[in-house]
Structure formats: C-alpha cells, structure tokens
Design a protein that fits this description.
Blueprint (H helix, E strand, L loop, with lengths): L12 E2 L12 H13 L4 E3 L10 H10 L7 E6 L1 E3 L5 E3 L3 H15 L4 E6 L8 H13 L3 E7 L3 H10 L4 E5 L10 H9 L2 E5 L31 H21 L3 H10 L5 E3 L6 H8 L8 H10 L19
Parallel strand pairs: 1-2, 2-3, 3-6, 6-7, 7-8, 8-9, 9-10
Antiparallel strand pairs: 4-5
Helix pairs in contact: 1-2, 3-4, 4-5, 5-6, 7-8
Length: 322
C-alpha cells in the first residue's frame, strides 16, 4: 500500500530495460513478460517517457502490452527528462511542460489516465510548488490518479506534499543502497507517503545475473557504471557473493533473498525489479513467499550497512536527492 490509499501489488515490474540501456531488446518477450506479470498478480507496471532508444519507446511498448487489459494494471509513468532540439536532455518541471508531457504520455500509452504520475527528477530552476501545482491540475482533470516524486530530498518532499498529497517517492533502495534511511524515509512515513524501490537488486548484480561488466552486452550502461568498474567491482563482488551464500543456505535464489529484505522494510515499501524476461519475473515474484527471521535481518544490518557498496550509484549524481 502506497500513500493516499493507492493499492499496488507487493512487487511491481520495472519496464525500462525492455526498451534501452540494458543491451539488446526483444519486444515480443517483453510484452509476454508484462502479460505474465498480470497473470501472476504483479500488476504494478512502471515506465517513463524517457525510457527507450527513442523518446517514448517504452511507453509505446507498455501501451501495446496493456491494450485491452488496461483495467488489470496499476500504471505509473514519469516526466521531467525533456529533449532539447539538439537531442540533449534537460530537467524540466515548468507547469507548461507538465501539461504537455502528460498528454504525450497518455497518447503513447493509449490510455485516458495513469494511476501514478511522477516527477522523474527535481528541476532546480522551477519551484517544486509550481510543478506540483500543475500536476495537481492533472488529478482534477482526471488524467492522473496519484502524484509521485523520484529522487527528491526530504525538504522537497515536504514542500511538494503541502501543495498536493504525494502518494509515492521512487528512489533507489536495496541492500547495498540504503541512503534513504533516516531523514528521507522518516519524512515519507510521517507524511504517509509510500516508497517505491527501484534497482532493488543492485541493477541485477545482487541477483548474481552477472559478476563483471565484461559479461554485459555492448550498449549496456552498467559497463561504465562506477559500481561495476575497477576496484569498486572487486569490493562489490564480495557483497553479491555474500547474498548468494545466504540465499543458498535458506534455499531460495539470490534475487528472492535480496527482494525479501526490501519487502521486510514494511508494507509501504514496494520494490519494482526490472526485467525483460519471464523467467526472471517469476523468480522475482517468488520473493513474496520468503520471510527473513529476526536473526537474518540483524545479520544483514551488520553486513550491509549504509555506505557498504563501493562507488557512486551513477557517474553523474547531480540530479539525485534535490
């Protein structure tokens, strides 16, 4: 359960990798994965306008997958990564852009509303009150049911929530990324805002789906991610191996173990592991059946404290937690 009564599945499906940045794509398998998600109760579907080799590609794919099945999904998308005429990107939270962006997203998705609409990154040049004020107009117009923010600071969350109730904060959160704990997570809980955890498997690394960047396909952005290169990789590989050891001892997969930890944080925390394959989807969904004991959770707190991972989450951290 997220904030403001927004009910979602315990685990969601992140769709970004179906269209870009994680190597080759396969639209047929991606659509089959979304369909399988709906069949097994993973109904919280997450996309964004910027996901794709071309702007809007992933929304179009999700729209095709949900054609005739819109009522089965809780659909979330995002705006704020806008394109400049030269193809570069900017963060844009101006009210006029908010209105333009939602109409474009609805058209690409082939729907008349989305259940959750996030500001993907905070625009340092536009007061959050103006952005959220425009987003609130979309709720009144029936184009959006609930509002969200992504990678926002506690102070920004408070200012936004004072304009219109915020239902969800989407930020990176996992065993090796616990930056939110403390002020940001406390603020969300004080205000009744749910947390949507993206990259809950450390971009697949904690699930054991690769052990070095060289295994990844050309075009996979993880090949240059700070956590998967140089000395950082060696330290982080030990963390992933420890997850695999603990998972094996429990008789579950590494992905299920890492997701079970995220799920243990509370019913207001919803992981959205991304995948473009049905096999990984079904593995991830099995995490809801895994319960970690008090002793296991205490051990994980000891072995995976805040700051345990080596390297920044992104090469450029300038738009994170504004």
């Amino acid at each position: 359960m997220l904030g403001q009564g927004l009910e979602v599945s315990a685990v969601g499906l992140g769709c970004m990798g179906m269209s870009a940045w994680y190597g080759e794509t396969d639209e047929a398998e991606s659509i089959a994965t979304i369909h399988r998600a709906l069949e097994i109760g993973v109904t919280f579907i997450d996309t964004a306008d910027v996901y794709g080799a071309a702007f809007g590609d992933n929304e179009r794919l999700v729209g095709r997958a949900l054609a005739g099945r819109r009522d089965e999904a809780i659909l979330a998308t995002k705006f704020a990564n806008a394109l400049n005429p030269d193809g570069s990107r900017r963060i844009d939270g101006r009210p006029e852009y908010v209105r333009e962006a939602i109409d474009a997203s609805l058209a690409r998705l082939g729907v008349d509303h989305v259940d959750l609409y996030y500001q993907h990154r905070v625009d340092a040049n536009t007061p959050i009150e103006e952005t959220v004020g425009a987003m609130a107009e979309l709720v009144t117009a029936g184009k959006v049911r609930h509002l969200g923010l992504s990678e926002a600071s506690a102070a920004t969350i408070r200012r936004a929530h004072a304009v219109h109730p915020i239902s969800a904060l989407q930020s990176e959160y996992s065993l090796w990324t616990r930056d939110l704990e403390g002020e940001i997570l406390d603020t969300c809980r004080e205000l009744g805002i749910g947390l949507v955890s993206y990259s809950p498997l450390g971009r697949g690394f904690l699930a054991g789906r690769f052990v070095s960047a060289e295994e990844l396909e050309d075009g996979d952005f993880r090949r240059t991610n700070p956590r998967f290169t140089g000395e950082n990789l060696e330290q982080n590989r030990r963390l992933a191996e420890r997850v695999r050891e603990l998972a094996a001892a429990k008789g579950v997969t590494a992905a299920q173990y890492a997701l079970a930890w995220v799920l243990s944080r509370g019913t207001d925390v919803v992981p959205i592991p991304g995948t473009k394959r049905r096999s990984y989807l079904e593995d991830n969904a099995g995490a809801v059946e895994v319960e970690l004991s008090r002793e296991e959770l205490a051990l994980l707190d000891e072995e995976f404290p805040h700051g345990v991972a080596a390297g920044d989450r992104y090469g450029d951290m300038s738009t994170v937690n504004r």
